[in-house]
């Protein structure tokens, strides 16, 4: 993500929105989840993310421009890594939030089902 220094007077909420927009694609989320486990080349990421290499490269470019991943050359390969482990923490918190929300919904549905079809 571009740095927000004193000369950048944009509200923090706008910068946060840009962060979430950069993460707003299933392939980008999956790539970040895989990179949270360790750095990988595009050829290593491709089967784990499950999209064509050219599309994956485009998605990784979005993440790189947003400052979420870094790259380095290793021979003819480009190796990607999370720029900051906090990105992995953010994904883990999102997962916990979704699991809690889905559990609550499941429990509510079970209660409603029990009301409709008493035993």
UniProtKB/TrEMBL annotation:
It comes from the Bacteria. One of its GO terms (molecular function) is DNA binding. Residues 8-102 form the HTH arsR-type domain. Keywords: DNA-binding, Transcription, Transcription regulation. Pfam families: HTH_5. The keyword Nucleotide-binding does not apply. Transmembrane segments: none annotated. PANTHER family: ARSENICAL RESISTANCE OPERON REPRESSOR ARSR-RELATED. This is Metalloregulator ArsR/SmtB family transcription factor. The lineage of its organism: Bacteria, Bacillati, Actinomycetota, Acidimicrobiia, Acidimicrobiales.
């Amino acid at each position: 993500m571009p740095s927000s220094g004193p000369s950048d007077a944009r509200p923090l909420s706008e910068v946060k929105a840009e962060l979430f927009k950069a993460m707003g694609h299933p392939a980008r989320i999956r790539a970040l989840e895989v990179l949270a486990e360790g750095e990988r080349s595009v050829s290593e990421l491709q089967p784990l993310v499950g999209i064509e290499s050219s599309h994956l490269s485009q998605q990784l470019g979005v993440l790189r421009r947003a400052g979420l991943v870094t790259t380095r050359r290793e021979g003819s390969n480009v190796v990607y890594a999370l720029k900051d482990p906090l990105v992995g923490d953010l994904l883990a918190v999102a997962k916990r939030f979704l699991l809690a929300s889905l559990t609550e919904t499941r429990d509510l549905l079970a209660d409603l089902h029990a009301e409709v079809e008493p035993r």
